[in-house]
# Entry
Amino acid sequence: MPDSHDAVYEACFSRSLIQLLAGAGWTPLVAFRVDGEGVLFGGAPARYKAQTAFVPWKDITAVVLWEQRMSGPSMAYVGVQRQAGAPPLPGQNAGLRPEQTTELAPHVDHELFLASRAVNRWRLDPERLRAAVAAFAPGVPVLVHEQLDV
# Structure
């Protein structure tokens, strides 16, 4: 049963033609959700069901905001640090090897990279995120990883 608590934080993807063609219709697709059970990462709209991942609070040690620098604007990400031995999460980055994630974001641990989603075609409200994490998992910090210039 969905959590109706006031502190629930949910962001949905902007609707697109890809979503319609992938068979999801115009139903809002959840991109990211924080509630009393844990954190939900929605899959990419074209592969939504296959890539959606849920992480329960018992597996989460921190929620992490970070950016990937690219030739143009940086890409924002939200991820979770998880307990050692937590099962792999489905998603578009699931098949990346450690050397690939190091090349893409050297300031982010491989496991964190795999347990992250790009803030793309949806908006992240850091203050609402912090409030939701504080309400549902007060012992879990919300961290910001910064990439240093080399």
About this structure: The chain has a mean pLDDT of 88. The first helix runs from residue 17 to 21. Residues 69 and 149 are 10 Å apart (CA to CA). Strands lie at 9-12, 30-34, 38-41, 53-56, 60-68, 75-82, 116-118, 142-145.
